[in-house]
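Re: duplicated header lines in exported structure tokens

Our pipeline writes sequence and tokens for each protein into one text file. With two proteins the header for the second block appears twice in some exports. Here is an export where it did not happen, for reference. First protein block:
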Amino acid sequence: MDYESNLDRALEEMPDLGGSDERLEVPDAAAQKDGAFTRLTNLSSIADALDRDPEHLHSAIQRELGTAGQYEDGRARYNGTFSPTELDAAVESYIAEYVTCSECGLPDTRLVTENRTQMLRCEACGAFRPVTKRSTKSQQTDTPDIEEGKTYTVEITGTGRKGDGVAEKGKYTIFVPGAQEGDVVDIYINNVSGTLAFARLD
């Protein structure tokens, strides 16, 4: 299975958090190659659909892609070459962290700061939770939790919609075809894209 297919499959297999997100209609990422950069031409439209500040979304996408970039006039530019699928995966990760309520699964939330801590408050069910900030600098300087071409032992803690096992290691969500929830397995990392990783049983 090639890299793009792996990314498409990962998006399909994002765990269902419960509830309904039917009211959340997010445009697909519109990517344009521009020399050594990739432009996301509809970032402001995506941010509007999520009811979030576009610069906040832009910063989070930079973190997920592990790159630097600029935001101006509703468009973003990122250093490097990224496919629409990779940008969509970064947006999906943002939605899971900064938009979706962990209790009811609805997107009817807002970001607030309480006692210097960023919180996600749900206006549908009243739940609230802290949002964990992840430093881009620390990700660039610290040893990564996983690396391509290496083997790790992980516990499968979930199952994707197509039946693949899902594990978590540090900031990474790892998709492991053939593994079942509850298994403790040795895996070989094939690809890493931002905070998404794709592995096989070793």
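Second protein block, exported in the same file:
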Amino acid sequence: MTALNDPPHTATELSDEEIFRAHEGGKLAIGATASLADPRALAIAYTPGVARVSRAIADDPSLAAKYTWAHRLVAVVSDGTAVLGLGDIGPSASLPVMEGKAALFKTFGGLDSIPLVLNTTDVDEIVETLVRLRPSFGAVNLEDVAAPRCFELEARLIEALDVPVMHDDQHGTAVVVLAALRGANTVLGKDVKNQRAVISGAGAAGVACAKILLAAGIGEVTVVDSRGIVHVGRDGLNPVKAELAEITNGSGLRGGIAEALRGADVFVGVSSSRVPEELIASMAGDSIVFALSNPDPEVHPEVAGRHAAVVATGRSDFPNQINNVLAFPGIFRGALDAGAKKITEGMKLAAAEAIAAVASEDLAVDRIVPSALDPRVGPEVAAAVALAARQDGVA
């Protein structure tokens, strides 16, 4: 709900008719890469010619990487428990989102992908399912899995599979947030080492953002959830938040979002909580506000702009859209180009640097990251990630 002091949204209204017509029949189709125009072509692509290829792979399983699409195919996997801002809507209702994700992979990363929505929320069952399906794909993009279960699921799959696995809601968000902070600091002449960031939300995105900002050398991170500042000794912390408390809040702050934001340099909103204007006004001078909740940011960008030097959202109708599409297609493309078996922290940091570098040519307070449609981003991120994979020894 929009607060009374918020300016109206400026997004172009989309009609139901236009939206549903675009989704009718789904958004994906399988296309053949081999010609089937005549009997000879058919005999090569299918029987009897295909039998020779199958025999060769049976004798040497490594040939599957050359003669099938599996090594370049990303499985986009969800259980439908944390879909966009809709919450736990189930696997069938999540499928349009996963189809859209697959379309983004193709458009911005040149990768084929297949949506897999699973009718279970049991971590053991999901892991077993993907282990059994492993010969059919070359990477796993976890999507819209609720926290804290998503942390265990990702860790289990990384351990069980010999292919890159990444939960995009965590790491894609974190990579683009770091890239945006690099851009904002360059514009403002600030050093991340001297900054304190407040992250509103301790779910998948919030935890990953905290960790990547710390890895990038930020001075301090304070995380706030629905019960206030996450700190050592607070009652009721789950294991993920308990670990987070150990590495954040070095100043020992107590209280809620008001106490956290007072004097802070950076705000990163990855929850649905509203932040009043007076709390943004209490931040340090030349502050940076990333209000990323969709469709309604934690604070309207025009309101935040009265006090902050740089403001970003997750929406396309305001400047500085922090969009995961800047990260995940290139990350997976680079990992697969390098033959990486996993996605390392170094690869994520390299992706953030690559995104920031693309934006560096014409940085401004209203352009701290490239456009989500910038065709340079995917190839640049892929190249940087592939190099980092080799440097990290996972290629």
